Every structure is written in C-alpha cells, then in structure tokens.
Structure prediction request, 347 residues.
Amino acid sequence: MPAGLFHENYQSDERIFQTWFVKAWLIAFLIACGLFPLVASKYMVSIMTEAGIAIIACHGLNVLTGFTGQISLGHAAFMGVGAYTCTILTGQAGIPFIVALPLAGAMAALVGMIFGIPSLRLRGLYLAIATIAAQFIIEFVIRRWDSLTGGVEGLFVDPGSIGPIQFDDHINLYYLTFVLAVLATMAVKNIVRARSGRAFVAIRDRYLAAEVIGVHVFKYRLMSFAVSSFFAGIAGALMAQYLEVITHESFTIHQSIDYLAMCIIGGLGHILGGIFGVGFWFILERLLEVVTTGLNTAFPDHVTWFVSIREVVFGCVIVLFLIFEPDGLAARWRTIRAYWKLWPFSY
Prediction:
C-alpha cells in the first residue's frame, strides 16, 4: 500500500484539506463550537463571542502585516469606522442589519484605502507612524462630529436582526460571530492561495524583486489595506452589537496594539496565527483576572500594586515570543504536527 501524500496536479496540491483526518477533526471542532452555548454559562458565551470578533479582526490584520508586510497600528480605528457606520445605518437611516453589516465593512475598506495610499512611499517604521496618525485622526473625528457620532457621549446601539433572529441575546450573537469567523477564515485562506495572496507574499519578502517581475506593488498594497480594513469593519460592527453602547474609547490605540500582539503571538503570515493568538491572549487574560482577584483579596492594603499586572505580564510575553518563538504558535503547531507524522522515526 502506498504511504504519504501524492499529488498529480496543482489543484490537488493546493487543496485546503489534504486528508480525511483533517476534515474529521475540523468537523468535530465545528460541532463542538455549535454545541458550546448549550452547555456553557452566559459569561463563557460572552467571552467566546468577544474572542470570535477578535479572530475576525486579527485575520484582517494578518493579511496586511503578516502576508503583505505592512505594519499597522491603527486597526482598532478601522473597527471603529465599521462600528459607527453599522450603528448609524441601522439606528438613524433604518437600513436592515443584514445590509448595514457589509456596508460597514465596505466603508472601513474605503477609509483604509485612503490611509493606505502613503504605503507606496512608506515602509516599516514610517508606515507604522502613518497608521498611528490614522488612528488619532479617526478618533478625533469620532469625538468631534457630535451630530453624527454623538461625540464623547457615544451612541446607543440598536440590536440588529436577520429575519426573526434578534441579536439582543448573546447566544444569537455568538452564532452570528461564529459563522462569520468561519467565513473569514475560509476567505483569508482562499485569498492567500490565489494570485493576490502570492503577490502579497512577494511584496513582503522582496518588494523590489516583485516589482521587477511584474507585480503592481501599489495596487496590491492598497488591496491588502482594503481587505484588512473590510475585516476590521465587520469585526467593529459585531463589537458594537456586543457592547451595546459605543464611544471613541471603545477603539483606542491600545486595542490596536493588542490585536497586533495577538497576531505576533499566534504567528504572522499563518492562517491559524489569528486563532492561536486570540486563544492564548484570552486564556492568559482570564488567568490574570483570577490571579489579580486573589492578590487583591490576600493583600487589600497593596491593591495599587496589582493595577498594572496585566500590562507587565503581556509585555513580557510579547518580548519572550519575539526572542524565543518569533514565528508564533502556528509555527510551533506545525513543528509538533511534523514530529508526530514521523514518530517514532527521528527523520
């Protein structure tokens, strides 16, 4: 009997699911996620909903930073554009949520493309500074445009609905987020496999060589900003439904740094990077909540000492990952899979 994987054409080699074993595990995972709200508490459903929103946002940032090599520190601002767009369209214009949701992504993509124009001339640290400027500009507009955004007081978010399904319940919102997170994962996978994905990677690795062989660098850089911002806009619209009240403080530069850190921990340039990064981040965050609560109870006279424990721990984690595992958890997962495929042989 033949052993291993044998491909006779490129279509077979590029299949998303190479073996039935991978398909079986994926189906089992999706079923488990679908049944999760039936056995979990409302708090856990709420946490998983927030994690699903973060996965969608991280997929977008990974397309821009991980696959195209364009550093962005304004991702949360584009989420804010999507959140306010969807809220205004549904609450003030009376547009159905199922229409407002993709329009929120489209508006965020348009704004992202505008701020992506400098990417033709800027790279690395200079582009990061330009995206920080986008973060501050969008926050300023949200704060000052009182008649549209509510200013510093923010907006109340009307619960969206699709047919008879209302998203004022976190369980329904969980299922919507779960479906969109799966679709976002599949969309990013197919984008990476397509011509545009190969152009993104070529620009990331050697943009001058990519331009020499015929890749339209500016076009694909702008496209990566649009795709990234579209996912951010969808995630922002879902975040608005989750928070129920949105202000400019809901989408600050701290959130942008958090999303970038999740991608770094999970693995830049890996489809699973966003999922692993978000999972690690949320698990560590819950553990720190337990530890901080315990320390506050044990040492009530020193509560102020534990206020910044989250920032200190996450800062150390990011530094350790950059030093010891720069390719993130996705690369480690690939190594583990390769090891067990060859076990018990050493080669």
Remarks:
- The mean pLDDT is 85.
